[in-house]
Write the structure tokens for this entry.
Amino acid sequence: MNALEIRNKFLNYFKSKGHSIIPSSPLIPENDPSVLFTTAGMHPLVPYLLGEKHPAGVRLADYQKCLRTVDIDEVGDNRHLTFFEMLGNWSLGDYFKETSIKYSMEFLTKELNIPIEKLSVTCFAGDNDAPRDEETARIWKENGMPEERIYYFGKDDNWWIAGETGPCGPDTEIFYDTGKEPCSKDCNPSCGCGKYVEIWNNVFMEYFKNPDGTYSKLKQRNVDTGLGLERINMLLQGKETPFDTEIFKPMMDKLQELAKEDNIASRRIVTEHLRSSMMVIADGGKPSNIDRGYVLRRLIRRMIRHLNKLGISLEKLEELIDLDIKILGEMYPELVKNRDNIVNTIVEEKDKFVKTLENGEKELIKELSKLKEKNVDTLSAEQVFKLYETYGFPQEVTKEIAEENGFKIDLENFDKLFKEHQEKSRLGSEQKFKGGLAEQNEQTIAYHTATHLLHKALQIVLGEHATQKGSNITTERLRFDFAHPQKVTKEELDEVERIVNEQIQRDLKVTCEEMSYDDAKKSGAIGLFENKYGDKVKVYTIGDFSKEICGGPHVEHTGVLGTFKIKKEEASSAGVRRIKAVLIK
Ligand code: SER
């Protein structure tokens, strides 16, 4: 079996159990600048876990493309990946523990033919926030899991939440025993020695963690499961690392063939980062110096450094990309569709990086000759770091050139500086992640509806070209980007504001209908969300005023919104303006 076959088996199995198959959301979350990348299958489904009705029903299954970059520097070992695919089945207030465990057990043992002896499970041990999950343990037993392979752990292991607040709950994790010797007499699924590998996580999402740290019950009890495709594929093929499976092996072999100085860590880094970069680019990513673009830039540049390390000519990049499209194109047709864009983006970034390296080298030689004049033989940690930060000049290249010229470098202190820098950027990206998922409350819902009113009012005042280009909502304000070639005048803004407030005062009813995308377009609905929900879309209508394709949620009557006030109008990018506005109660 290969990864694509496992994916298909999974989707077919859940289809046969009444689940609708929904498409993977893009890696770059739609309309949500507060989160860098989609990091879990539940991420695009948050509104529905909170009670919003999903157009495809209450039982869903999907594969979701995910990118996690917290461990980017670990890639090169035998297991870490940045991009991965998560298979998931979802119950939105429909079935719960009993059925979910039955399906998981049946799928693993009957469809994938994994002997039950290979499996163990963990359950939530209980604390002040939620009880010990004995129900889950009982259900496992009823499904044939022997008591001695059912473990209990606390929140660190058996509680799932994305970020700090939001929908969450106890989970039960399923582990595969690789057959390796136990690391000690206490060896268990959570010890991390590698004997047990987690394959599937079933989250029983019935809680919401509030910003004050307390937990409330959600409107409905959900199931969110995630099964890591690369991992299960590796285990079923009896391989030691994902790099030995068909997803990565042909690229690993090709790099070995081309390498003048082979090393396996570099080949893994090139293979892994190339795949991730291509997936991000296919979903609309562009390298830059901030946020998402910066992550992509790091992936591409790290890959290039390791190609250099392997002694592989950068002229080979296009050939390597084409090889990867051949390997992955059937699983991800978007790679085939975006082939030229992928090649151009990566080659352009390569050219920039090569320039960076040239400039950095010039700067370094200058520094070294200054040191020579002063009779100093060591390049300081600050100098090495400055080359890294300003020129993106890798520390190992600095070291090589310094040594060629008879200098040492202060690596120890550089490592310290570098770790501090890494910690800062890690905190930065976690901070981003925090805001994104959880904030779905009365206030953000009100802003969501106000955004629709604003969108329509802008089109009335400025013209139909003023379509949405982006939106971001917090509990404090809405931010809306739209197409418009010049500054919006004070009079126009006043008129927009007046129209929105008029619609609020009319206390219009907000209604929702599901229809096909084509019907939605025909009915005159505006909106950005092409293909977001597969066959069907939701259309929100606000009285006789606005009709827009959207996932929701929204208020029921516009009367509750209060007074709408535009705080700021400014340029966002070429041809795009940005409005920040608030609702005053
Ligand atoms: N949300 C859980 C995870 O990401 C299960 O899908 O592991």
Remarks:
- DSSP finds 18 helices and 18 strands in the chain.
- Residues 40-42, 88, 160, 201, 203, 224-226 surround serine (CB under 6 Å).
- Residues 109 and 219 are 33 Å apart (CA to CA).
